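Quick entry between incubations.
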Amino acid sequence: MSARKIQRRISTEESIPVTLILISVALAFMALFLVLPLMTVFIVAFSKGWDLYWAALKEPMAWEAIKLTLIAAGIAVPANLVFGVAASWAIAKFDFKGKSVLITLIDMPFAISPVVSGLVYVLLFGTQGWFGPWLQAHNIKLLFAVPGIVLATIFVTFPFIARQLIPLMQAQGKEEEEAAVSLGASGWQTFFRVTLPNIKWGLLYGVILCNARAMGEFGAVSVVSGHIRGQTNTMPLHIEILYNEYNFVAAFAVASLLALLAVVTLIVKTLVEWQAKRSGEPLHHGA
Amino acid sequence: MSRFKAHTVLPGFNLALGFALLYLSLIVLIPLSALFFKTATLGWGGFWTVVTGDRVVASLRVTFLTSFIAAALNAFFGLIVAWVLVRYTFPGKRIIDALVDLPFALPTAVAGITLATIYAPNGWIGHYFAEHGIKIAYTPTGIVLALTFIGLPFVVRTVQPVLADVEAEVEEAAASLGAGRWDVFSRVIFPAVFPALLAGFAMALARAIGEYGSVIFIAGNMPYISEIAPLLIVSKLEQYDYAGATAIAIAMLVISFGLLLIINGLQWWSTRKGVR
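Done. Structure below.
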């Protein structure tokens, strides 16, 4: 028995020095690129003490930025959730032509620069844009206003939930739903009692990642915002202004809230992955 | 109807697909089509003049070069991180595993100001390099750094499951036939994970090319040297040069699409080779 074990060690594992070197390289890389930046945010934020930290967060402009970020994410995430569920229901439970084209189109916002995502809305709603003159004539302001920010946020977070749900629901098939319908359940009953319990962890997983991106989006929102303080500044844009004014403590104080959000996102995400594994609902489907 | 879609007892197809298509068109397709119509107003000559301007060419070169280097760094270190996470056990492994996704969760602006602070000439790490006359922040090196941070999870997360699926029997068979550990890695394991590694590389590359938030704080944004193409789009927009901004955007899209096509081809070729 022990001889066999030694044989195994020799043949299919690296020598101990190689193992140690590989682990050290991986850990050093992770420490330098991930742990150090994360710590820096909090260290700089608190470098001048609690009072200045709180002062930066209590400032009315910071408060307005926080509110706007919550509004944008509060609209974008539910909107993309409804879309994600509808799209994955159609794609996973039915066979129709053009399905793979549809999946590719849903993925598209991931392949587009955030700046270009903002640009397309400027082309639509800007003064020289398609709908610009009409909007101006009717005194509707979409660009450089809250609706533009919400639209840009929806665009960049568009695929998150659909992309999570489509492979999950495809892997689960449609037998359970067909059984429920054959036994007389209505469509909505089938969805809420059969489908939803099966996809709840994947759904939550998608929502968490979608929310993190929605609250943190910078490039797209920056293009459509117009940077009006207290009106069209989200938290990331507020951070940019403070940083460019060399107000580092305040910039990092606001940044620390977003960093905290990132840490909470990672923790919840890990917990969801464990739960999903326990309940036998696979979240990932290989590459 | 029945030709378009196979029969099933499940309800809700029309509602679900109809809503999905409407939402997709309103949010993504119609706005994106504006990009092409706007460029069309420039005409081919106008488009070419914008795209071949010195400053635009320089910014495209900076963007694609730094993105390529960053994606390559990610492929190398990402493979090592994935390997270590799949094959070894050590204290704190679960935390490290969870931390890999930090660049997905941390807003890019936060990453940008943080990396700029660390690697500035008076920063914690930057000042060691500054003593030797090396500048990291406010140079293309800084851009590579930010893009490496942004792309880190892609390679790790695509390689990890594939690496976990490599069957121990295959390695044992190779080893029992006399292959050394390096031979087993380079001839058995590496070919198996190579398609996934390429996929991760492509995703990191695509993300890096479009990246804006984390880069502008650390780049220094010097025209011709450290100015990225997305930033040039923003400055054209600020001058109300919508057509110029759109032309650069189209050029970026076309070049990245071409690159991804090449990488997909490579991936297809390597998978085929692996199967045969």
